[in-house]
Predict the structure.
Amino acid sequence: MPNVKTKADKSLGKALINDRFKKRGKKKTVDNGSMFHTTEVKDGYDWGRLNLQSVTEESSFQDFLRTAELAGKEFQAEKLNIAFVNVKKDFGVLSEAERREAEQKHRDKKSLLTIPRRPKWTSETTPEELQQLENESFLNWRRSLALLQENEDLQMTPYEKNLDFWRQLWRVIERSDVIVQIVDARNPLLFRNEDLEKYVKEVGQEKGNMILINKSDFLTDDQRRKWAEFFDQREIRVVFFSALQARESADLADVEEEENEEEEVESSPAKALMEKIDKVEEEMTQLEEDLSKMLKQEEVLKEKGGNSWKKNNPDILSPEELIELFQHIHQHPKKVTEGITTIGLVGYPNVGKSSTINALLTEKKVSVSATPGKTKHFQTLFLQKDLMLCDCPGLVMPSFVLTKAEMILNGILPIDQMRDHVSPINQLCVYIPRHVLEDRYGIMIPKPTGMDDPDRAPHSEELLLAYGYNRGFMTANGQPDQAKGARYILKDFVNGKLLYAYAPPGHVQEEFHTFPERQRTERTHIPPQEKRATRLPGTAMTEEEFDAIYFSNSSAEAYAKGRKTMPHIRPLSASSSTQSLDSVHMAGKSWKGGKKEKRVKLRKQYAHLDQH
């Protein structure tokens, strides 16, 4: 009996569908349903609570909302008044003349680049009044930087726009005896903030400043010596350190200690005692040498007239030496915590503050991440009974920069949140020579053709197409995935696998940082498939490719769906005529057992014509 749907069954199905979809109403952006943006949002959320989400980049609309919130004003703006504009594509690479002009402008306007100050307050100031003063001061500071960018046409880092992060910095400065700025050894001047050093002295004249150049293992001995001389001329105390090298040394020492313990168990007690005596004698000899060096330095200072400045040491300090330096660097009375020296660690995100603390503590106490902005609150940690560290969250402070691409290359902005990969890759290709990129990734970047300069740096598309094809990063339409390849290459640059160190002012960049010679033999032949995949869109064929296609000996054929043979077409040769007659005979008598021609799909038969 056939299954016949009754009227009741149909109505039941419609009722279920209506009940399901009627619950979905239109989403209203505002409670009153009007077509207006507004700041009056009463949704039960406490908007005044502590918000420690780092904000360095905002759209114009988000910037307007945050400014209105700081000013304590309400606004209404009509929606749907949208205008689409064509933005000119900027590849982010400056010429030498533009670079020199921008650097001169940065030097002239350096004094105008400040950080926000905490307003003056007393014990009688209420928390509400202090918060209002901080909001007004922070708003005025943001307006001054915005005017500086607009009036002077200066490129600036997207500084931290969340007031709560600056409050953390203020507390760290007030609680610390010495403020240590941690900078990246590859570009120390970009990460150093001179106005921060002035603000530390404004808070307390007894407070000290120091610069810790982290990741110093990326620099050679000669490069570190030049940087030490540069800071000596300005009487700025710097130390060279490498958290990664300290961690590797600690791991190696642990392995050696375990091996020595095993050997001591197997060896006799007398032999172990003799080894300990030899070790103590070596330590005593080393202490005598250090003492003689200190006496010689004091004699040199007395001969120079008693100048108290001690030159910076270009060697990389070990964790033990750095701890000893922290203990004796502050000679003034401890006003913050009596009997305890507090060292405040401040710096940009991803310069290695947390890694430095972990290296000093010899065990992991602070969470570490390659993403900028991992630390959210300042935290205090005791190294010894009389030495305490105060770790501040990573702050992107306002600083002049030539292009936005350099902020990504220096690790200031997170690569995974990058919107434009063309400018950073173009800048990277200017810094890193072609043969270094080819040796590093085992690729062959297409060379300039036609009227292009044969010695020019490769473009972003040339590098990314070759890298994506080599690594197998392909999009859905069969083209190399340039965005994915760009993220991998930029992370290699930030991690130091593609090494580039900036020279101090007054030194020639080409002489300061040199690249190794080509290690791999250069390929002379590129397979046709790779050549097609790495061809830039819109580029014309070379003369050799055009001649090869035009003069190729390809016989003319007639294509038809189904049978290949055409009985009504005259054959070209005797052999082909014999074959065609046989095929006609077989095709005409297929019902007598003749073999029919196998039908093949045309897209498979002519797949070679669909090559990109």
The beta strands are 36-38, 76-78, 178-184, 208-214, 238-240, 341-347, 379-384, 387-391. Residues 89 and 423 are 10 Å apart (CA to CA). DSSP finds 22 helices and eight strands in the chain.
